[in-house]
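Complex 197.
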Amino acid sequence: MFTTIAALLPLACLAIAAPAGTGCTPTKEAKVARFDDLPYTEGSMNQIPPHYYGLSYFTFQVDQYDHWIPPTSGNQWAMAFGGSGNISIPDSPPKSTFELDSFSYACVSGVPQPECAISVWGWKANGKVIKRKIKFPKLDPAPVEAYVMNKTKFSHEWRDLKSLGFSIARADNGGDMYGGLALDDIAYTITFGCPDS
Ligand SMILES: *[C@@H]1O[C@H](CO)[C@@H](O)[C@H](O)[C@H]1NC(C)=O
Ligand SMILES: *[C@@H]1O[C@H](CO)[C@@H](O)[C@H](O)[C@H]1NC(C)=O
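Predicted structure with 2-acetamido-2-deoxy-beta-D-glucopyranose bound:
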């Protein structure tokens, strides 16, 4: 028994190192998107460039601190002004996926604003869709220092992702928040795929 397992182990390691003999090994890279290194022009569309730290953003733009809720890092965050948007891994290199680790978030509708429910969908490479709802608290008038982003971590279930989708609604009645969704310090790990693995 012992000798059989010992004999198989080196083969198993080889198979992982060079799948299907392509010479390509899937690699993993941990990233944090902080949005502070992107250009911002007041009053224009400040699109997040494709492949920003390996991901592409739809609807989200770069937005700057306006002396209300401060971004977690620096003075910029990613903002979906209508409250919904997507973050996806590009098709090239093929078969790449990502695992979501954590992010900071805020619903931004002004004060007062009702409690906000943020729906987060994850589309996996195998077609499975997972979903989580997170809340951002109701905001009443308060000294400006009281307003901070909230942060959440994601479980290991949030891996093998192709895309993330977001939308916001009032937590109490599902109505419109009439506001945006801000994200900052999005931490994730990309697995760069191999063409024939
Ligand atoms: C987000 O991605 C999903 C799935 O690919 C798509 O159905 C939806 O239209 C996208 N929404 C936006 C705002 O890009
Ligand atoms: C979440 O955000 C609210 C409003 O900015 C703040 O009062 C609260 O302390 C935050 N909670 C955490 C755990 O960050």
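The pocket of 2-acetamido-2-deoxy-beta-D-glucopyranose (ligand 1) is lined by residues 58-59, 84-86, 123, 163, 165 (CB under 6 Å).
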